[in-house]
Design a protein that fits this description.
Largest sheet: 5 strands, antiparallel
Radius of gyration: 29 Å
Number of domains: 2
Shape: elongated
Strand content: 25-35%
Order of helices and strands: HHEEHEEEEE
Helix content: 25-40%
Distance between the termini: 62 Å
Length: 173
């Protein structure tokens, strides 16, 4: 090798070795940070499932249930039975719709008969508004349906369709 002394080659190797060590250390640090944030995020996700239940005033919940059911079920020509999980719903809240009978089912009845039913998900407080799903499926596992937002004022409930919602069962296999 012309023009390059052995001393220059040795210093290049040493510099290359130092750069390599820095790259490895930075990569390791980035991996540790990412893992740490992932663990923190996972732990926060676990805590969020243990948050206290959101309480919606009964008058507001009655309006939400009645209006969502009227929006979801139109009058029919033939008599139809719609099975609803009785969780968070009272019989007196159910609207009268031509040829539709809403039948409230207890959790035991649903489990015994392995029925898929319509039900309202747990309400969520999202800042100054609430969110709730009206879905069809198995309350203990998988469901698919509509998601609603609502805001409560002194005199009325402002309710709007927000989109869809779903939950899938996660098998342990």
């Amino acid at each position: 090798m012309r023009g390059v002394s052995l001393l220059d080659l040795e210093s290049m190797r040493r510099i290359g070795s130092e750069i390599f060590k820095q790259i490895i250390l930075r990569s390791l640090l980035a991996l540790v940070l990412i893992s740490g944030f992932s663990i923190i995020g996972f732990a926060q996700g676990e805590e969020s499932e243990e948050l206290p239940q959101v309480i919606v005033p009964e008058q507001a919940m009655e309006q939400v249930v009645r209006r969502v059911l009227v929006w979801s079920f139109k009058p029919r020509n033939k008599a139809t039975v719609i099975y609803l999980a009785e969780q968070r719903i009272k019989q007196s809240w159910l609207p009268k719709i031509k040829n539709i009978e809403f039948r409230l089912m207890s959790a035991n009845e649903i489990e015994e008969k392995t029925l898929e039913v319509y039900f309202f998900t747990e309400p969520e407080l999202l800042g100054k508004k609430y969110g709730i799903g009206f879905v069809f499926g198995d309350p203990a596992c998988e469901y698919l349906g509509d998601y609603w937002h609502f805001r409560i004022s002194e005199e009325k409930v402002r309710l709007w369709h927000y989109g869809g919602t779903r939950r899938r069962c996660v098998s342990s296999s």
